[in-house]
Write a structure and sequence with these properties.
Length: about 425
């Protein structure tokens, strides 16, 4: 007897925001869609600060149900080393992220996708008959082997297809990128006025930042991202001990029954991968290296790249040609839409090259509200800086300032 094979048009790997939306959009476009997820349930462990902007929801046509929203928020407040505070006001939400991911996956199933939990992709083999015809995938889970015309890799930072698929020179499709560590606690009785507080305090979070992301009932995620991975937990504990957060209680988040109260993960920081498409393959979200450089948000980018991936897959499948050339439409689309990573990264690097004192001088030159400075506002900041510390221009202060502008929701910052 031959091996039972599961066939589909599109196989989506991973049911995070990128994978859930890729499956939803593919199913809506009439494709026979399979969504697999390694974990036995969707969304846990949570590895996210859980915020998403209103602009993202509008851009993605997301009509969030009440149960996935923990709190509506006013925007971001950036707190510099000398405690100068500046706002980037733009509305958004703090989610119960695991419920959000389950909701998207359920929407995908309602639209016709099939979902299989506890299924882990472990190998991929090309199917060819003169031309490329698809992928034969294998791994852990009853549905394997699975044959798909197009695979959408939404496996997050694991970026599984970048390792499994080889180029014609026999190299992995993409080299492993750099990551930073992110970690947080859920605290209770945290005071808030509805802003996300982002602390740029390098003495605790080297080349990163710390956050207080308020949730309902006085709960809040308090955490950090840092390039100093070994020190991440110690630095977060010190930050909490040294600030007003020490009065708040650490609790297990609602989705966690036992173990350490700390939770988190890693975030890609090398920028978009060199190859985000290949024969019958599209990489979305963290699996493609899509995160916003300064504050490392990735959900908006994952959800949007999933839309482009589904559109590209549908077109290629309808034309009976899923070659790399057809898939390149996807790369063209995201490159046209997403902000210039390298430019923002230069700004971030310039920011972290400033001393704490220089950063605070820069901050005092910003208006209290940074969300819409316009040309005249930016000129004013430039003039103030020129008067107070002209030497800062040699430290590329202008790109550093612009990095904040590029962290706004309309540039996929959150
Ligand atoms: C501490 C922290 C805080 C963050 N805060 C925010 C924030 O507030 N806002 C924001 O926008 N972004 C934030 N991010 C980033 C955000 O979480 C990610 O960018 C986003 O989740 C990416 O979505 P994704 O679908 O690409 O990948 P993921 O959400 O990582 O989903 C990938 C899925 O693939 C599954 N998978 C992996 N390998 C396989 C396999 N071989 N087979 C099957 N399934 C597999 C995984 O189990 C996982 O469920 C944060 C990240 C961290 C670590």
């Amino acid at each position: 007897m031959g091996e039972a094979v599961t066939s589909c048009d599109v196989l989506v790997i991973g049911a995070g925001p990128g994978g859930g939306n890729a499956a939803l959009q593919s199913a809506r476009l009439g494709l026979k869609t399979l969504l697999i997820e390694d974990h036995p349930e969707i969304g846990t462990p949570v590895h996210c600060g859980e915020c998403i902007s209103e602009i993202a929801c509008q851009n993605l046509d997301l009509n969030l149900p009440d149960e996935v929203i923990s709190k509506r928020v006013q925007g971001i407040r950036v707190i510099f080393p000398d405690r100068t505070e500046k706002c980037l006001t733009e509305e958004g939400y703090v989610l119960e992220k695991h419920l959000f991911e389950r909701w998207i996956a359920d929407e995908a199933v309602a639209a016709g996708a099939r979902m299989h939990l506890g299924h882990k992709l472990q190998s991929m083999e090309r199917m060819e008959n003169g031309n490329f015809e698809g992928w034969r995938c294998n791994g852990k889970g009853d549905e394997f082997p699975i044959e798909a015309k197009v695979v959408i890799d939404a496996s997050g930072v694991a970026a599984v297809c970048s390792k499994l698929v080889k180029t014609s020179e026999g190299k992995p499709l993409n080299e492993k990128g750099k990551v930073v560590a992110g970690m947080q606690y859920e605290l209770t009785d945290v005071p808030t006025d509805g802003y996300l507080d982002f602390y740029i305090w390098p003495s605790y979070a080297e080349k990163g930042y710390l956050w207080m992301i308020p949730k309902c009932d006085g709960r809040a995620n308090v955490g950090l991202v840092t390039e100093d991975r070994p020190r991440a937990k110690k630095a977060l504990d010190e930050f909490i001990e040294d600030t007003h957060f020490k009065d708040s209680e650490q609790v297990l988040p609602p989705w966690k029954e036992k173990g350490s109260p700390a939770f988190g993960g890693t975030i890609p920081i090398s920028g978009p991968f060199e190859n985000t498409h290949h024969d019958g393959l599209l990489l979305v979200g963290d699996a493609a290296g899509f995160t916003s450089p300064l504050f490392e948000g990735g959900s908006h980018l994952a959800l949007k790249s999933a839309v482009y991936a589904a559109e590209t897959a549908a077109k290629a499948i309808s034309e009976g040609n899923t070659s790399s050339e057809m898939m390149s439409e996807y790369t063209r689309k995201w490159k046209e839409e997403f902000p210039p990573y390298d430019k923002i990264l230069r700004g971030k690097n310039a920011l972290f090259n400033l001393t704490d004192e220089e950063m605070s001088v820069m901050a005092t030159c910003f208006p209290d509200e940074m969300s819409d400075m316009g040309i005249s506002g930016k000129t004013m900041v430039g003039l103030r800086l020129l008067l107070r510390r002209p030497g800062l221009y040699s430290k590329k202060i202008v790109p550093a300032m612009l990095a904040f502008g590029y962290s706004r929701a309309k540039y996929y910052g959150w």
